Amino acid sequence: MLDHKLLEVHNLKKYYPVTGGLFSQHLGDVRAVDDVSFDIKEGEALGLVGESGCGKSTLGRTILRLEEPTEGQIIYRKTDITRLNQRELRGLRQEMQMIFQDPQSFLDPRMTVGQSIGEALLIHGVRDDKEREQRVIEILERVGLEGQQGLRYPHEFSSGQRQRIGIGRALILNPKLIIADEPVSALDVSIQAQILNLMLDLREEFGLTYLFIAHDLSVIKYVSQRVAVMYLGKIVELASRDEIFQNTRHPYTEALLSAIPGITQKKKTRIILPGSVPSPINPPAGCRFHTRCHRVLPLCHQEEPNLRDIGNEHLVACHLYRG
Ligand code: SF4
After folding, report:
1. What's residue 302's pLDDT?
2. Closest Cα to atom 5, ligand 1: which residue?
3. Which of 79, 189, 250, 316 has its CA at a distance of 20 to 30 angstroms from the CA of residue 10?
4. How far, in Å, is the centroid of ligand 1 from the Cα of 1?
């Protein structure tokens, strides 16, 4: 793994305005992503985990500019891509691809999968039919399908095969960064392992960098070298995989891990989180987790903790570690 940063995210925010009333007054904002900073080194796999609705998918989409950021900076290979126009972005889009949870959503049922995969090549200027066909066959074979299957339609494939097609479609343009949004959560457990192993092999072979988004900590543990934990629009803990799983600090991460027997070496008592995740329109004052935290302090109601390094490149946003 190289030691330079492929992606840097600085103070990124993605707010969705909430309007109402006769004149569509601005009533507030859904703060889906709220002041998030992190980086990913070239060749690294960073796992992003959190409950559903915590903002992790929005973060992934905003990094790729599929959603426009409200504030903050996205630096890709030392270029600030935050305000590039769509024409300027096009060249970089080739290098930054997304794998979705449901490949059905981007596979046109009226096109063969070969046409769907080849379309990306056409958009990016590969006009020669023979070359496109050859590259589609090669990529289908690389993701574990047969080249001839490119002549079939999406409904003729199983869900696992469709995800292989989704991976092939992301890889056809030789990307450097892949944002994988819950790529195995819709699959049977036996198929999940095959797809995860395929993604790990491809990372080695093509030198890919992953932002791997999932709600399942077992999946995150399997594929990631570092892990970021997100709660209500913010990263609350970020560290190497070993630090997160063996030296857990944030009470939210503790609760998530305690729900999965055997995921850490230490025996843990199950921590039941009371209530549900508060609304991102009106997040709790102070620490956003204080309404559910089993270790809450009086200070937590008033002051928001910053994400700070407590040593060993282990970052935590919690008043228990003020130093
Ligand atoms: Fe819990 Fe307070 Fe830490 Fe927030 S800052 S996680 S409420 S102890």
Report:
1. 96
2. 318
3. 250
4. 35
Q: In this structure, which residue's CA is closest to atom 8 in ligand 1?
A: 296
Q: Tokens 């997100």 label which residue?
A: 230
For ligand 1, residues with CB inside 6 Å are: 250-251, 287, 289-290, 293, 295-297, 300, 305, 318-320
The residue whose C-alpha atom lies closest to atom 7 belonging to ligand 1 is 290
Q: Which helix (H) or strand (E) holds 59?
A: helix 56-63
Residue 250 Cα, ligand 1 centroid: separation in angstroms? 8
Cα 26 from Cα 127, distance rounded (Å): 47
Contact call for residues 223 and 196 (beta carbons, < 8 A): yes
pLDDT in tens, 140-172: 999 999 999 999 999 999 999 999 999 999 999
**Cα 76 from Cα 9, distance rounded (Å):** 9
Domain 42-69+177-321: give its CATH superfamily. P-loop containing nucleotide triphosphate hydrolases (3.40.50.300)
Residue 297 Cα: closest atom of ligand 1: 2
Residues 184-204: b if buried by 16+ CB within 10 A, e if exposed: bebbeeebbebbbebbeebbe
Domain edges within the chain: 42-69+177-321, 104-174
Mean pLDDT of 173-202: 95
Please give the distance, rounded to the nearest whole angstrom, from the Cα atom of residue 295 to the centre of ligand 1. 6
Over the stretch 98-140, which tens digit does the pLDDT of each residue have? 999 888 777 899 999 999 999 989 988 898 999 999 999 999 9
